[in-house]
Amino acid sequence: MKNALITGTSLLGALAAQAQGQPMNNGEKPLNIVYIMCDDHSYQTISCYGSTMNHTPNIDRVAQRGVRFTNSFVANSLSGPSRACMLTGKHSHANGFTDNTKSFDGSQQTFPKLLRAAGYQTAMIGKWHLVSLPTGFDYYDILTGQGDYYNPTFIRNGEELQRHGYATNITTDLALNWLDTQRDPQKPFCLFIHHKAPHRTWMPDLQDLELFSDSTYKLPDNFFDDYSGRRAAQEQRMSIDKDMDIVYDLKMADRDSTIHGHDKGLESVGYYYYRRRMDSAQQAAWDKHYDPIIENFKKANLSGKALVEWKFQQYMRDYLRVIHSVDRNVGRVLDYLEANGLMDNTLIVYTSDQGFYMGEHGWFDKRFMYEESFRTPLIMALPGGKVGTSDVMIQNIDYAPTFLEAAGVKVPQDIQGESVLSELTGADKGKAKRSSKRNLYYHYYEYPDEHRVNRHFGIRTPRYSLMRFYGDVNQWELYDLKRDPENMHNIYDDPKQKSLIKKLKKELSKLQEQYDDPIRKQITD
Ligand code: SGN
Ligand code: CA
């Protein structure tokens, strides 16, 4: 055992001391942070979030120890931007990383840097996706770019190397290895475990390929959405029907390229694309699973609705297989923390860089300020803290101040997020109440690439979402989420909403001013 245990009570005592201006770790074991973030993991596919499609017993284990946030959102629903918001505690315009074409300015303040300066050991492992190399970490071992599922290339403290195996397993191995061999037991640590999974193109681990083969999944009610009243939704290119490629996405890549996808000429890379990084044993196992499916698919010669529904089922099966592996690997981390006496002084976080569409609106991908992609799963387990759920409005810019406060480090003035530590400790109800009424700001920028989701910004109150699309599509959208949680009815043009719209626009302007988003000077209505 590397660390003496601290009890939950003493940790809470330490937190109380910190709230009174004393360092939290005054005479106590300081708090470690293990932050596990997946890429594109939808809350719809987590059992503690109510999924009936699959089981995630290990992610649920985190929830059983802590707080599951039921109103958790991102600030800009895309990988790089989300990661930048999380690290800086600032909205995209303030941290500079507005879309995935940017490179993160690593000279700026981030919370790992602040933790490090306060004596923490910091490590970043897995998907980084911020182009410039990580700064502020004692150790980093990151996937290149989006990362590959099989035999991926990593950059370890500046040195590039390819590793054999499956990304989710390797990322976990590296994290556990770091804990085992590089962690300084004299210091608290903050360890980031960032999985590539379950990002497109949803390639399962070989050991999970046969799971769910006989399962069929219920189509979401709004799978055949016609996007009426929502012009940006009409323009997107992320539909399972029109944009999800049979060959590229769904792996119907036969040796003779007789199956043709419809997008980007991707069928030309078909058969080789999936197998290109695999060794022959991996290829053989892969083919053993997909070959019969490809043959059946060819024979069935599907079209129209039958084809779309087949695509949905195939997408779900692969996605859920990938999640199964994520969950197993979360279990490995928890087992390690338990076996090494780290559970009682480690804050464990499980989240995703954004939400994801599992066929809602007929889509995959994310980006929109509509619920499934604006929301993201978030579970935080503080030892000795509250167990249950929290409905406070939380956004990924709030993580940095929360972790800093939990570590007893002063939160700098320029951080735009708000700490929700009181939600974890159960203390200071007054503060928690304010957060639950809070309005959130959203701004998405990446257009037209890759899925043609128009730029938009907006405000989310506990009940309403008001969005302003701009650029090619210029349109306001308003949703009453109590009546329309699926964002199907844009009521912006309903004359009865006039005074509500006026009020919401005022609140939106207030947020834009508070966060100083330059767009407020360019678009005034
Ligand atoms: C890739 C994907 C897109 C996805 C973006 C952003 N295409 O470009 O479908 O929207 O990443 O995702 S792929 O063919 O390369 O898989 S993000 O989560 O990294 O922001
Ligand atoms: Ca993502």
Number of helices: 16
Number of strands: 16
Order of strands in the sheet with the most strands?
7-6-5-4-8-1-9-10-2-11
Main beta sheet: 10 strands, mixed
Give the SSE map.
Elements: H1 8-19, E1 32-38, H2 57-65, E2 67-69, E3 72-73, H3 79-88, H4 92-95, H5 111-117, E4 121-126, E5 139-143, E6 153-156, E7 159-162, H6 167-181, E8 189-194, H7 231-235, H8 270-275, H9 280-300, H10 304-339, E9 346-352, H11 371-374, E10 378-381, E11 388-390, E12 394-395, H12 399-406, H13 421-425, H14 429-437, E13 440-444, E14 455-460, E15 464-470, E16 475-480, H15 498-515, H16 519-522
Parallel strand pairs: 1-8, 1-9, 2-11, 3-12, 4-5, 4-8
Antiparallel strand pairs: 2-10, 5-6, 6-7, 9-10, 13-14, 14-15, 15-16
The site of 2-deoxy-6-O-sulfo-2-(sulfoamino)-alpha-D-glucopyranose has 13 residues, from loops.
Task: Tell me what the structure shows.
The chain has about 525 residues and is an alpha/beta fold. The chain contains 16 helices and 16 strands. A 10-stranded mixed β-sheet has the order 7-6-5-4-8-1-9-10-2-11, sandwiched between helices. Strands 13-14-15-16 form a 4-stranded antiparallel β-sheet, covered by helices on one side. Strands 3-12 form a two-stranded parallel sheet. α2 (about 55-65) crosses α10 (about 305-340) and α6 (about 165-180) runs parallel beside α10. The N and C termini lie far apart (about 60 Å).
